């Protein structure tokens, strides 16, 4: 219920929002941590969003963000060195693109498994395990003697990749104040752009000097981050409450129509989400290196521009979602990208830099709403499992896109530019339409306390 405050100290991160004229507080947000902020005795104003979270909330968010950065780095270095790997092992790019499909398929298993663990023993444990898992797989790829070993190890890599996002996104969104959760969602997913950016920069220096294997050695080093996560990130998951809520959910049965609607609709949105992202980015380095004949350094520059755009675009998309709603935020990003598609694939000489920036700022922005949207759909007791399922079912559906795109190029006579424009553009528009036609059941309140969904 609203309370009136007149100058006393309130917990920072409590989710209490103060009306600028009346001083009344809205206590709908999640409970925060220990920091405090003093308010003036008169003319009380809302705290800036970045001051509302306390120290523990920032540490928790940082752990999830860093995990996602590492996830992106590890995934992207493979995309960047596919031509070099294909040459060394004497195989076509389609074979290597097929391993992307295997990676994304196994993400579903990792996401659901991590969600089940997170719903029973807390969000932090699966996050730590996933980071170690990724590091071990990367180190092993650096020593792979054949393409078969690469395919096996990258498939196993997908398990840890799915586990990391599920546990990290749930941990971050549950502990962040409601008012700025849209912005936090965008920044969290923008960590993927940072990881991609780091991969592009590092590959531009490392590959010409030491070859592609050195990249995977570097990717194994961040396993050491498990130690600060273990001792510096608080675990606030209430096991007893979650158990009671799971029993209540079980009494409604697995065929609860509201839950099924949310699972199906969320999976559809995520399939379009992944389709747009992978359609635009999975074969982009191959396009630049083969059809456009760019050097490793030239590719690195354009991929860097894409990811600077993505870093800004995901934060923008999250901020717009907080104000106007998720559907409008995605529509702005999706339709904003369409005019820039010819520039993105190099059809307008001299303007690829602008197309690359737009590809990140508009085309890669919609994933920024994923943590916010998915964690708002399900109650805390089953949130980890459901978020992991929905996110990675979407990845499963879209997993065939990179392989299908490569096959169209190699066997159907299409160019990389044509398939990137078509697949990326169609999936972006489809995601915008899926959000605009959102079923009413997904707008109702979850069965138990959960991060509040954004309107729209």
Automatic annotation (TrEMBL):
Lineage, top ranks: Bacteria, Pseudomonadati, Myxococcota, Myxococcia, Myxococcales
Residues annotated as domain Major facilitator superfamily (MFS) profile: 60-442
InterPro entries cross-referenced by the UniProt entry: Casein_CS, MFS, MFS_dom, MFS_trans_sf, Sugar_transporter_CS
Cellular component, GO, one term: plasma membrane
Source organism of the structure: Archangium gephyra
Gene3D superfamilies, sorted: MFS general substrate transporter like domains
Transmembrane annotation, as ranges: 61-81, 93-118, 125-145, 183-206, 212-233, 254-278, 298-319, 326-345, 351-374, 386-409, 415-437
An MF annotation (GO) of this entry: carboxylic acid transmembrane transporter activity
Protein known as: SHS family lactate transporter-like MFS transporter
Any Pfam family: MFS_1
Intracellular or extracellular location(s): Membrane
Domain of life: Bacteria
Keywords: Membrane, Signal, Transmembrane, Transmembrane helix
Membrane topology: Multi-pass membrane protein
Primary site of residence: membrane
